[in-house]
Design a protein that fits this description.
heterodimer; A: 333 residues; alpha+beta; BirA Bifunctional Protein, domain 2; two-stranded antiparallel sheet; 11 helices; 9 strands; 42% helix; rod-shaped; B: 799 residues; Phenylalanyl-tRNA Synthetase, Chain B, domain 1; OB fold (Dihydrolipoamide Acetyltransferase, E2P); Phenylalanyl-tRNA Synthetase, Chain B, domain 3; seven-stranded mixed beta sheet; six-stranded antiparallel beta sheet; 39 strands; 27% helix; elongated
Chain lengths: 333, 799
Amino acid sequence: MDHFEELRHATPRRVQDAATLADLDEIEATTIGRRSIVAEARRDLGKIKDPEERRATGRAINDLAADIALQIEVRRTELHTSEVNATLEAERVDVTLPGRVPRRGTHHLIQQTMDEIVDIFVALGYTMVQGPEAETEFYNFTALNIPSTHPSRLESDTLYLEYGDTADEILLRTHTSPMQARHMESHDPPVYIVVPGKVFRADAIDATHLPVFHQIEGLAVDDNITFADLKGTLGQFARQFFGPDTRVKFIPHYFPFTEPSAEMHAYTQGEWIELLGCGMVNPAVFEQVGYDAETLTGFAFGMGVERMAMVRHGITDLRTLIDPDVRTLEQYR
Amino acid sequence: MKFTLSWLREFVEIPAGDPHNLVEALESLGHEIAEFRVIEPTFAGVVIGRVQEVSAHPNADKVRLTKVDVGGEVLDIVCGAWNFQAGAVVPVAVPGAVLGGDFQITRRAIRGVASNGMICSERELDLGEEAEGIMVLNDDYPGAASMIGAPLADVIGLPDVYYEVEVTPNRPDCLSVYGLARDLAALYRTPLRDRGIKVTESGAPTCISVVIEDADACPRFAGREVRGITVGTSPHWLRWRLTQAGIRPISNVVDASNYAMVEFGHPTHAFDIARLGTTIGVRLAHDGEGIVTLDGQRRSLTAADIVVTDGEIPVAISGVMGGASSEVHADTRDVFIEAAYWNPARVLMTSKRLSLRSEASQRFERGADPSFCVLAADRVAQILTEIAGGAPAPQPVDVNPGAIEEWQISYPLSETERILGISIDGATTKELLERLTFKVEGSDPLVVTVPTRRPDVQRPVDLVEEIARLHGFDSIPDTVPQGPGGGLGQRETRMREIREIMVGAGFYQMITFSFIGEHDLDRLGLESGHPARAGIRLVNPINDTEGVMRTTLVPGLLKAASMGLARRNTSAQLYEIGKVFLPDGGELPKQPDRLAFVLAGETAADWLTQATDFDVFDASGVWELLAEKLGLPHTQLRQADVAPFHPGRCAEIILGDGVIGALGEIHPNVVDAYGLSGRVVAGEFDLEELLLESGPWQFAAPSAFPPVVFDLAFALDADVPASILIDAVREAGSDLVEDVRVFDVFTGASIGEGRRSVAVNICLRASDRTLTDAEVTPIRQAIAARVVKRTGGELRGTA
C-alpha cells in the first residue's frame, strides 16, 4: 500500500508539472492506465480473501483512480486551451491589410436613373414601353403636330439616315415622344405609359450637348384626365425622386404637341431647376391617332435623364456621362 | 428679348420693389427669364452742370478754361474737349467724384491753372463709345437744363434693371417691350399705357408705287416716306436703350427702325429712295438669282425666297436682310420705311438656308402682327421726325392683297373644367380673356374674337391655356390618377436580370454613341459582304468618323477600353446593351438589341493575388454564366474563325438552332488598330431570343443519396473539341450524370505528337437510391466506350 501512498502524494505534482498533452498522456498511462500501479492493484484484488477487506480495498483503489483521473482531466483542459491559444497567437495576421474584394461592376448612372424613374411611374400603374430609335419623320414630327416648316426638322437639328425610298424620311428620333402616337394608334384608351430611351440631335459634343442622350416620356390618356392630374403626378414624382421636401412649380411654356404646356421646376439643393416639359395632349395629336378629342383628355411629359442624374449627383459636365474611365464608372455604385 | 425696366415702365405700371418680383410675374405668364441684373452707374458724384464761360488757357493751346455752374457753386475746370461752348449742359465729375469704380476726381492744377473737377465724355462714364468730345446733354436730354446740380444718373435713368426673356416660339407678340407690357398689364390688372403713334404729315405726297405679285408670300405691304432727313448719330437716350437691348447703334435711321422694333415688335426696313427709285415690287426670287446684302455678301436665291425689287432687280431679301444697292448712306435725304407682313414659313426657310438669323427674321418667322404694319412704319417716321429732322409723307403706303382678319372661337365654359380640372364661371372667364384684350361676347359658349397678333390661338384649348396662365397654375389642385398597371413587361424584366448578371460578374456598363465610322469596319477586319458592312449612313453625321449607324457594339467598347487604359486604368471590363441598325426590307431599319462585352488590360495585382491577362476562357465563362443564370436550354459554343477574333481563340455562340453571336480573343491586328495591347477579350450576341418569355423555372429536389465520383482521362487528337467528350459522358450516363468537370488538360511526349490528354471528374447520383458498385461499373465502362467512340481517342490508364 505504500505504492498507493506514494501515488496519492506524488501524482498531483506530476500532473501539474506536465508541460504538454503528451507528458500528461504518459502520466495517465503510468498512474491509472492499463499497466499502472492502479491497474496492477485491481488485478491483485482477487488475492484478498476477506470480502470486507476486498471491498474496502477496491473502493480505495477506485477512489484514488477517480481522483487522479479528475486531476489529469483538469490539467488536460488547461493544456489544451493554452495549446489552442498558442496556435491562435501564431496565426495572428494584420487584418487591416486590404481584403479580397469580390469584384462587381456598376450599372451606368443613366441606366440607374432611368430605371428608378420608370419604377416610380410603374408603381403609379403605368406600363413601360419602348420604341424604335430609327424613326420616321411622320411619327417624330408630323404626328406630334410639329409643322412641316418647323426648324427642328432641319438637318442642323435632326440626324437623318440614308435609308428607304419612301416620301417619309427616316431619322434618328429627336425625342421619345413618337411613342405617344405609335402607342395610341395600336392601343385603345385608357393609356398610361412611360417610355425611356435614347434620343439623338445633330449637336457637337460639349459640356452641355451630346448627340446621343436619353429621355423618359410619359403619357396618361383617360376619360377625365386634367391638368390637376398632371400637376399631382409630376409633383409626386419629383418628391419621390429628389426627396419628400422638394417643392415644384409649373410655369407656362410651349410645345406643339401639348396645350396648355408647362415646364416643371423643382427647388432642390438650394435652387430652382428646370426639370421637365409637360402639358395636356393637344387635340391635334388625338386626331392624328384616331382618338376622340371631344371625350378624351390626357397629359404628357418628357424629361432628360442626363439632367436628372446630373442635378442629383452634382455632375456639371455632360461628357462625364460618356467617360469610360473606371474612376468615373466605379462611382456609379 | 432684352430690355430695361425703365423702358417697360413707359407702357405699364410696374410695382416698385425687388426686381425679382418682375421675374416671377413674367415667369407665371410663361416668359422665362434667362438673365436679369441691376444696371448701376459706374460713376458717383457726377452732376449736371451748365458751362457759363469758356476761355483760352494761358499756358496751353490744347485745353480751355471753363466756368461751370454745378448748382449753387461755379467751378473752374480745365477741359480738353472742344465740342461745346458756353451754355452747354454737361456731366461734371466734381471733386470727390469717382469714375469707373476707382478713379477719384480731385482738385488739381493743369499747366498752372486750378481745375476743380472734370467734364466727362460718354466713355469716361461708361455710358457709350464716344470718347472724342464730352457729353452735351442739351439736345439729347432736354430736361437736363432744368436739373443743374442734380445727379447725372437721374437724367439717364439709372439705376435701371436689365432683363432677358426667353419668349416661346408661339408668342411672337411678346418679342417687344410693348407686348410684354400688355401681358403684364393683364396680370397686374392695370391699364396699358398707350401713348399713340402720331406722324406729323408735313412732307411731300408719296411717290412710291407698290406691286405685289404673290399675296401668299406678302399679304400686306405698308410703309411711309420720310423726306429731308439728316443722317447722323442718334441721341444718347436712344443709343443707350438700344445698347441695353443688345443692339449696336449704327445711325439715326437704322437706330430708329431698331428702336421701334424692340418697342413694338414689328421690324421695318429703310430704303434710300434716291437709290431705290419709285417702284417697289414684291415677288418670289428666281432660282439662281443673286443679291448683295447689307453685309457685303453675295447671296444666291431660290424660288422659295421672297424678295423686294425695284421693279426688276432684288433690293432686299424680304424679312431677312436688306440689299446693299438701296442702303441708307450718310448722304441719304429721303427714305421709304417698309413695314410688311411676310409669310412666316418662307422667312424661316430662307433665313435658315442662308444662316442669316436676325432680330427681324426671328420676328417675321414666328409671325408678326399684320394689323400693325402701318403703325410700325409710322412709329419709325415719328422717331425720325424727332431725331433726324424728317418730314413724313401725308399718307402711308398700304397694299393689302391678302388681308388677314381677326377670327372667332366658340368657347364652351365646360372646356375649362375638362382640361384644367377646375371650374371657372362665365363672368370670370370673360374678365380674364378681356384683360388679354380678346373680345368676348355671348354667355355659354362664349364667342371670343382673337386679335391678329395671336396666331397661336386657334382652338378652344388655346384659350384654356390663356385662362390657365392668367388664373395661375398654382390655383389648380394636385391629384394623382392611378393607371391600370402594366409593369415593366417580360422584356424589360429579363433585360434587368441580364444587366444584373453582367454587373455581378464585374462588368461596368457603358453607354456609347450609336455611330461608327467606315474605318471601324476596316479595323475590325470584316471582309466585304459581311453583314456588319451594310451599315446605314447618316445624311448629316456629326463628324466624318461617325458617319454610319453601328452594326456592331464592339468598336464602341474597344474605343472605350482604349481610352480607359490610356488613362492608366489597370483593366477595362466593360459591357453595353444597345441597338444595332441593320438594313431590312421594312419601312424602318431592323433595330435588335445586342449585348457586347470587352475585357482588356489585366486583373489588378495586390498582396494576395497576382495580375493575370484575360483570355478566351474569360469570354466563354461569361457566356456560361449567362446561360446558367438565365436558364438557357440548348446552348453551346462552337470553335470558329470569324472577324474580329483570333482565328484559333474564337467561338460562335449557338442557341437553339442558330448562331446568335461570337466571343473570343480579339485578333492582334484589331487590338493594335484600337491602340490596345496584350490579349483583349470580347463577345457580342443578339439578345432578342434571350428576352423571350420562358415561363417560371421548375424546382428539382436535390438527391438525398450519396454520389459516386470518379475520374476518367482520355488521349484525344488535338483538334477534337472537349465539348464532344463532355456530351458523350452525359449521353452515356444519362440521368445519373450530376456533373462533369474537366480538371486537367495537357500535352506532352507521353501522350504523343498532335494529341492531348483531357481528364474529367464525373459525379453520378441517383435521385431514388444509393448507387452500388455493381450498378456503377457497367455505366463507367459504357461512358468510357462512348467517349472513345465519339472522339476516336482512347482511355488512359485506369482511372
